[in-house]
Design goal:
Number of strands: 17
Radius of gyration: 23 Å
Number of helices: 14
Oligomer: single chain
Helix content: 25-40%
Bound molecules: adenosine monophosphate
Strand content: 15-25%
Shape: elongated
CATH superfamily of the largest domain: Phosphoglycerate kinase, N-terminal domain
Number of domains: 2
CATH architecture of the largest domain: 3-Layer(aba) Sandwich
């Protein structure tokens, strides 16, 4: 059953949202309300049908008991603003007061429950805790993609108590559609751009993608392990010696599958890991000792841009350099712009997982690509082809 098909008139929808938003330490306000805004279409659909809504979420990593700094109380005004209506709040997600409030909700009303992780049963996936939570709704909607890879009480176990009336919200539906589009489309060429710090954290996804992609662009810190494995001198760049074998295996696999791997050829090197470091351009295979590669340089940027511009499907995960520092952000911003340009020319682009999402936001390009995923780890596991428990619980 899809959310679009269902009529919520007179029904209470219990929605698992991902309101794990950052709070500004000084002002105690929500500093980035993206996750709240993205949940609004699902909430509005229920309300527009004449239903009521109970929202549940986690925030941060409390130590299984209430902690003021992780209270969802802090986000009430932000939810009110995004939704354009005043919500109710209860400071314990399974207290008798909470059940009284949720069972008396009128059509058009919204109740937010306090942080689910104030109870240890949430992360443990406790059946009794999930059963209690389930009493808050007639229908269960999962719209929290960021936690869909966790078999927690509110993301997965709870679905057992809604054998008939369980569905995805619009946000998760979009995430699923985007990955399907990327992995099932016959359009070519498909280019994966993988960057970020380490080979070790991306090895699984790369070895899965290699079966599917036409081009694999490798940038960021992980590129230096590939270059060293191929015999280059990478000076003091970030290296994972243990993973040089993996790098060579990927190169061999790519050859056997006809996948073109694009490694950087030139790099911006620095004499220390600092924005204030001395910098120069170097051939990536010949970095002097005492210097480290912290960004890709002009020739590599040009090559990567050309590949991106000729692609019909693009997946991007991980920055090309230490983009948090101005001195080493050009590679990442150039790639972000190239992905936006390719999208404008008709390519489908998915920005998934990790810091590439932060990068695309930093350059204000998130509305110029096809899809920006809300789930870091969840998106990576999904792309790897793993069954996410939160998704499986709705489908089966
Ligand atoms: P990830 O979370 O694996 O996508 O890694 C993102 C991090 O990788 C960012 O914080 C970048 O600063 C870092 N990074 C990218 N390129 C390099 C590099 N050449 N050397 C060290 N760190 C890098």
């Amino acid at each position: 059953m899809t959310i679009q098909e269902y009529n919520f008139k007179g029904k209470r929808a219990l929605i698992r949202v991902d309101f794990n938003v950052p709070i500004d330490k000084a002002t105690k306000n929500v500093s980035d309300d993206t996750r709240i805004r993205l949940a609004i279409p699902t909430i509005k659909k229920v309300l527009a049908d004449g239903g009521s809504v109970v929202l549940m979420s986690h925030m941060g990593r409390p130590k299984n008991c209430p902690e003021e700094k992780f209270s969802l109380k802090q986000i009430i005004s932000s939810v009110n603003n995004c939704l354009g209506t005043q919500i109710k709040f209860v400071d314990d997600c399974i207290s008798s007061e909470s059940f009284e409030l949720s069972s008396n909700l009128k059509s058009g009303e919204v109740l937010l429950l306090e942080n689910l992780r104030f109870y240890p049963g949430e992360k443990k996936g406790d059946n009794q805790f999930a059963e209690k939570l389930s009493k808050h709704g007639d229908v269960f909607i999962n719209d929290a993609f960021g936690t869909a890879h966790r078999a927690h009480a509110s993301t997965t176990i709870i679905a057992n108590f809604f054998p008939k009336y369980k569905m995805f919200g619009f946000l998760i539906e979009n995430e699923i559609k985007s990955v399907d589009k990327l992995l099932k489309s016959e359009l070519k060429p498909l280019t994966a751009i993988v960057g970020g710090a380490k080979v070790s954290s991306k090895i699984t996804i790369i070895s899965k993608l290699i079966n599917k992609v036409d081009h694999l662009i490798i940038g960021g810190g992980m590129a230096y392990t590939f270059v060293k494995a191929l015999g280059g001198n990478v000076g003091n760049s970030l290296i994972e010696d243990d993973h040089m074998v993996d790098a060579l295996e990927i190169i061999d696999l790519a050859k056997s599958k006809g996948v073109k791997i694009h490694l950087p050829t030139d790099t911006i090197i620095a004499d220390k890991f600092s924005n204030a470091a001395n910098v120069k351009v170097s051939d990536i295979t010949n970095i002097p000792d005492g210097w480290m590669g912290l960004d890709i340089s002009e020739n590599s940027i040009k090559t990567f841009e050309n590949v991106i511009h000729s692609s019909k499907l693009i997946l991007w995960n991980g920055p090309m350099g230490v983009f948090e520092m101005d001195a080493f952000q050009k590679g990442t911003s150039s790639i972000a712009i190239a992905v936006a340009e390719a999208t404008k020319n008709g390519a489908f682009s998915l920005i998934g997982g990790g810091d590439s999402v932060a990068a695309i936001n930093k350059y204000n390009l998130s509305d110029q690509v096809s899809h920006v995923s809300t789930g870091g780890g969840a998106m990576l596991e999904f792309l790897e082809g793993k069954v996410l428990p939160g998704i499986d619980a709705i489908l089966n």
